[in-house]
Hints:
Elements: H1 3-16, E1 24-26, E2 47-53, E3 62-66, E4 72-80, H2 84-100, H3 108-113, E5 118-130, E6 134-144, E7 151-161, H4 166-190, E8 198-199
Parallel strand pairs: 1-4, 2-5
Antiparallel strand pairs: 3-4, 5-6, 6-7, 7-8
Helix pairs in contact: 2-4
Amino acid sequence: xxxxxxxxxxxxxxxxxxxxxxxxxxxxxxxxxxxxxxxxxxxxxxxxxxxxxxxxxxxxxxxxxxxxxxxxxxxxxxxxxxxxxxxxxxxxxxxxxxxxxxxxxxxxxxxxxxxxxxxxxxxxxxxxxxxxxxxxxxxxxxxxxxxxxxxxxxxxxxxxxxxxxxxxxxxxxxxxxxxxxxxxxxxxxxxxxxxxxxxxxxx
Length: 203
């Protein structure tokens, strides 16, 4: 076996840790930065953020890292502090609040049905953690704008290089989530297609 292969396997063994090591919990939410919002308030008024769908292969309490041969390794002592879908929704809500100067409505069910509330739905199709290489986030989102039946659907693939360690993986995905929130915020603010994403024409 080549030396690089041995090093790679040893690194994964170190990530997995021993059973006696205390677990570490991670969050995808960044600390809220100081300062004003970077975009104007939502044109169409308040907005609701629906449940975020995540791929089943990474929807675990443990962080799921991808090996070079395509296998998934669950890190027994490195855990999400909440279910991954909920983590993503909370992180996106915080980033959208910073971007737009307005949080999503909290009473979600009535908000999703209210014709005066814009509705954002997010489907995360890839959430890859590749140790020492990169993290990837592929997401499709749809916005139904308030006061109309106008819809726009967009898709983006975001990738960040990362260094060694679990914290680097988490920080990389935090950056991807910030970029995704920026695109969603632009969609809401302009009621159109944001730059850097593939979108359908508003219908």
